[in-house]
Amino acid sequence: MVSATSASLVRRVYYNFVTLLTQHDKFMTKPSFISLGIAVLTVSDSRGEDEDKSGRLLVDRLEKAGHRCGEKRIVRDDIYQIRAVISRWIADDGIQAIITTGGTGVTGRDGTPEAVQPLLDKTLDGFGEVFRMISYQQIQTSTIQSRAVAGVANGTYIFCVPGSSGACATAWDELIEAQLDRRTRPCNLVELMPRLRET
User: Fold this and answer.
1) Contact (CB, 8 A) for 184 and 178
2) Phi-psi map region of 154: left, alpha, beta (phi>0 left; psi -120 to 50 alpha)
3) 107: exposed, middle or buried (C-beta count within 10 Å: 0-12, 13-18, 19+)?
4) What angle do CA 35, 38, 44 make, to 5 degrees?
5) Helix (H) or strand (E) segment spanning residue 68
6) Residue 74 in contact with residue 133, Cβ under 8 Å?
7) Is the per-residue pLDDT at 91 higher than 70?
8) Alpha-carbon distances of 111 from 73, 80, 149, rounded to whole Å
């Protein structure tokens, strides 16, 4: 006959064993990479395809990481042109993420955040905060001029980064690439995609 104390001990050992197995599976089972459709929008009054170093850098980086470029466009610094392109992309089921480069400064023509923010269902405030923190190590106080923003619209992630190729490299290499990789631990944006349109 098993005493109540012994039974309690057995239950506790069993519970701890099951918990250990669950944690092992959670952290030891590596999820597979998912290739996303990512669109790139360069916002500039002066750049054409030949001069678009930042847009090409982003396309090269995302394709090297295993994603596919859903589309690449260049539009003028015009809120309505920017918004029109972004709106079309967030309605496209083949595009899961959008990266814009340019128009995040403080001059009269810089309007990318104003174009994009009304479209967002949720903002990812940490993106701009961490981007500026990392950028500070490179350009010191000049980083306060960047209004980099990110968020989610209709289940599509949107990242708005400055127009310089250095800023694009920083944003992709230090933040976006890892968060658009389902293998990133402890968590990433890709694993949340099935739940982005929950009501």
Assistant:
1) yes
2) left
3) exposed
4) 160
5) strand 68-75
6) no
7) yes
8) 17, 10, 12
